[in-house]
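Entry 0007
Protein: Fibronectin, type-like protein
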Amino acid sequence: MKVSSFAVFALVLVLLMVVSMTSALKLNIQKTSSPMAGRSNVVIKKLNIQPHSLSVSGISSGGFMAVQFQMAYSAAIVGAGVFAGGPFFCSQGQMAYAFDQCMYAALPIDLDSLQQTLQQYASQNVIDPIANIKNHKVFMFSGTSDNTVNPSVMKALFEQYRKLGVPAANINATFTVPAGHAWITNDYGNDCSITQSPWINNCNFPGGQRVLGAIYGNVTVGKAQDSNLFTYDQSNSFSGTDMDSKGYIYIPTACQQNTQCKIHVSFHGCEQGASYVQEQFVQHTGLNEVAERSNIIVVYPQVSSGQMFSNPNGCWDWFAYSGQNFANKQGSQMAAVANLVKALGSDIIV
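Output (structure tokens):
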């Protein structure tokens, strides 16, 4: 059996892997090595970040991660873009729920239970007050040909946002494009309906522009500068369970010259980090083209594969392989990314 591991993460990944085993701002720059050979490595330091400008996006496991990060750090975040993800804490830390409820929608998602978890976490101060979320701007995308995360799961996320008080006018949802399970662009990737590596599809739909436009309002598209894409060390406080040794960051020319800039974090999906697809995700989502002209710093944290029966395919943790705090500020991946964003100058509360 050949496993499309991005198409089936969480429990399906584990089960099928058992079968497959038998068949200007003065940046301190240095050089890095494989798989980012030749890419300049920047030492993280404070940049001139616009207050209250942090946003997130993600695809698949990265979509679930983006939602987790949005909810946990809602005081600093202004919006989120989610491709083929699902509700906060959808898996409830259980592989069976990740599979049955949050991917193939064989069972309904109990949004009331998830709301209780949000309230509990807020009362324990392991996430920011949930009242902040009603002010967020949201972009959502689910393709009609997505057989990995059923479109009904994204519709449940829409309902969760509404339960949290996000006005319908603040939610830009696209659920009618015949796309497979992928980040969507208008100039790069597989045919629109395909579900396969690198999990980027050309659907004549500018996904990166739609995400940042929905969150920030009017944005313009420019030409991304390859020299403005750097790696950074994911070590010490910038490292969490199964995180790769390097992450990526796109710093527009103006932001390197001390212009005040916004900041966005984008989470790749399973088998979509640099250790799997090299730089395809960090170069071809359409985010950098908007970022360069619109003065938005884009951070691309990276996860690689872990243990065979927990995270064999480099997924972000939305099903508790790193521990039961995976979805709040005490989760190792959540804290690592928050520490990085704070070190860059964001007003995030860690």
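Curator remark: Confidence is low (pLDDT under 50) at residues 1-34. The longest helix spans residues 111-123.
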